[in-house]
Amino acid sequence: MATATLGNLTAIIALLITVATAASDAPPGTGYTNHTVGGAAGWFFNGTANTSATNYSSWAGSLAFNLGDFLIFNTNSNTTVIQTYNDTTYLSCTMDDAEDDDTTQYNGGSTQFGDKMTVAVPLTIEGPNYYFSDANDGVQCQQGMAFEIQVKHGLGLPPSLNQPPPPPYIEPPGPDSVQSPPVSISQNGAIRGGANVGGVLCALLTVSVLF
Ligand SMILES: *[C@@H]1O[C@H](CO)[C@@H](O)[C@H](O)[C@H]1NC(C)=O
Ligand SMILES: *[C@@H]1O[C@H](CO)[C@@H](O)[C@H](O)[C@H]1NC(C)=O
Ligand SMILES: *[C@@H]1O[C@H](CO)[C@@H](O)[C@H](O)[C@H]1NC(C)=O
Ligand SMILES: *[C@@H]1O[C@H](CO)[C@@H](O)[C@H](O)[C@H]1NC(C)=O
Ligand SMILES: *[C@@H]1O[C@H](CO)[C@@H](O)[C@H](O)[C@H]1NC(C)=O
Ligand SMILES: *[C@@H]1O[C@H](CO)[C@@H](O)[C@H](O)[C@H]1NC(C)=O
User: Fold this and answer.
1) What gap in Å lies between CA 71 and CA 118, rounded to an integer?
2) What does DSSP say about strands 70-76 and 116-122: parallel, antiparallel, or unpaired?
């Protein structure tokens, strides 16, 4: 009995040491960070000099990025903001051949040059994340409007970002269609999908506490 209690105590102390070590390895700070891309220079291309406003690789290289952080692009409608997880797309400087599930354009819709805009991009996937502007037929990207970051787990996604994306829009059925029951089934499926993602996130959080 006494031996078993001592054993338990040893196990608890070992666990406490592990948790303390993990905490000291954790990134500094307890919240999420908004990183202003390029710092004061922003996300701009100088067409006269044919070069980016700053060296974005070197800007990114000095920072740590975690899930739940945002990249804030202070820019204008002369550039684009494209996020991809696919290095082939990144290196190509175009999203023409990109797949929908790994590449997103965050701005657009402006019909004229030079409109000021701010684009906030949440970091929701760990690992390599790539960004570029494909404007001027890819020349902006080729001339420096491109960078890569490594997103770490950090605190994990906050509740505001851990929901799965909404299911794709489906044309409502016409009046003489008998499609209404399948629609409600697909809604149940989406809710169940959300619960599963929550479960995985819980498991990930538990694992990150233990290690
Ligand atoms: C970071 O940016 C997001 C998106 O614009 C915003 O919702 C959030 O409040 C910002 N967080 C901080 C700490 O500024
Ligand atoms: C763009 O580059 C040109 C030539 O190098 C320079 O004279 C000009 O000041 C730059 N414009 C901006 C907004 O930095
Ligand atoms: C800018 O650089 C690209 C090479 O990436 C070149 O093809 C283009 O002609 C240059 N444009 C100007 C205005 O110098
Ligand atoms: C930008 O900085 C990176 C390293 O931080 C360097 O390797 C690269 O050559 C720089 N690019 C330019 C165009 O100066
Ligand atoms: C990356 O994108 C290219 C198209 O640009 C596609 O052929 C390739 O399969 C993608 N890679 C992965 C790992 O999805
Ligand atoms: C935006 O692009 C237009 C057309 O190329 C150019 O005249 C203008 O100077 C650019 N503005 C900025 C702020 O880069």
Assistant:
1) 10
2) antiparallel
pLDDT in tens, 1-15: 444 454 554 444 344
Hey, is 99 helix, strand or coil?
coil
Atom index in ligand 3 nearest the CA of residue 47 equals 13
pLDDT per residue as tens digits for the range 159-209: 999 876 656 666 666 666 544 444 333 343 333 333 344 433 434 444 444
Distance 1 CA to ligand 1 centre (A): 54
Which protein residue's CA is at the shortest distance from atom 5 of ligand 2?
49
Same domain for 202 and 148: no
Q: Within this chain, do residues 87 and 34 fall inside the same structural domain, yes or no? A: yes
Question: Total domain count for the chain?
Answer: 2
pTM of the model: 0.73
Could you list the residue range(s) of the whole structural domain that residue 135 is in? 27-152
